[in-house]
Amino acid sequence: MGLLASVRQVRRNVLNILPAISYTQPIVTGNTGPARWHMVQGPEGMRQVFLDNVDNYPKSEVMIRMLRPAVGASLFTSEGAAWRWQRRAIAPVFAARNVRALAPMMTRTAERAAERLAAGPGRSEMVREMLSATFDVICDVALSGREHFDADRYGAAITRYFLTVGRASLLDFLELPPWVPRPGELLGRGAVRTMHAMVARAIAARQAEGSSGVEDLLDYMLRAEDPETGRRMTRQDLLHNMQFFIVAGHETTALALAWALLLLAHDGDAQDRARHEAQAVLGLRPAGADDLPQMPFIEAVLDETMRLYPPVGLLARNVLAPDRIYDREIGTRETVFLNIYALHRHRLYWDDPDAFLPERFLPEAKAARDRYLHLPFGAGPRICVGANFAMMQAGIILATLLARFRFAPAGPPPSPVMHMTVRPDPGVDLAVTALDLA
Description:
Layout: H1 3-12, E1 27-32, E2 35-40, H2 43-52, H3 61-71, H4 80-90, H5 96-101, H6 103-118, E3 123-125, H7 126-143, H8 151-163, H9 170-173, H10 183-187, H11 189-209, H12 217-223, H13 235-265, H14 268-282, H15 296-308, E4 314-318, E5 323-325, E6 328-330, E7 335-339, H16 340-344, H17 363-367, H18 387-404, E8 405-409, E9 415-418, E10 422-425, E11 429-434
Parallel strand pairs: 2-7
Antiparallel strand pairs: 1-2, 3-11, 4-7, 5-6, 8-11, 9-10
Helix pairs in contact: 6-7, 6-18, 7-13, 8-11, 11-13, 13-15, 13-18, 14-18
């Protein structure tokens, strides 16, 4: 496309720059302006970057530049020793027993989401509805309530951030150093202040008042300690990590749920199968953690949804030392793009790759597949620490809604647009019909 055309397309939709050949080849190499890059979308190459030679591929300076104003040197943006101690301290927070202990809060928020839909006009925009539901979950499980948050202001600040700081700049393509201010960073400062102020108030109140009596994520984070060094988080560490978990923990799960409901609305057979499974397990009650193993098709729907619409479709990595991926020599200071969107729709690895077929992820089929063909949460040592948390809240909400409502299209299908996450544009408008469960 050339430099300026590439910048324009990236700012509109990152998915616009994925070349057609990336859906048929495991690696594509090219240049944009002065920058040489390699786009990897084969499972062997993914394994090499995510696991086998992971230390050679730190997160790109552009990605860090986009994220650091919001989440600082948190677990997601740090590297090396700074990342290792935070990972050691935070991993126990998301241990299975702790996540399961938070499940009753997820169940209550699923019930509230169902009540909102039942009281609605019979037609809803599902991205907004699911963002509200997952924000409920995050506020309850992270902070035991919303008293320090204005959900509308916080949500608007996140969107503002993604559209300013979270967009690539021409200065990124020209490889100017990160300390040179980008226009988007200046435009997004107010959004950062809004988000940080709310999270900081919640942390300060908890430190002053003590535990609310029901342990939540903030309680676990306040006690988090590196088992090797005994190091604990400063207030700034807490602010940045809680900020990241709040943004990532509700945005990505909400999008997965909205896309899942859209796909089911267009596939009546799959929706009926998922509904019958949910109703057989739940009856009239909302879902809980113990119900999820009994609903494998619900999990398969979520996995197939995140294959077609991964929460983050493209990741970028720097290169510290020369390497070889497939038949390509990878040079120092070149960029490697991990093209998860194309991997998940690749003609070499998937039959009928653009079709919605949840059966691909039923237990037997899933077990037989290369682990590095489906990467909605990444892989290797930096796999998303909250993956189990995300799948649990998504499963509880989706099963509860499918057991009580029928969903049908109520507008033209949206297009996937990626800035940081893959969102449906302009939204997901569905007709929502409450079922007679008496």
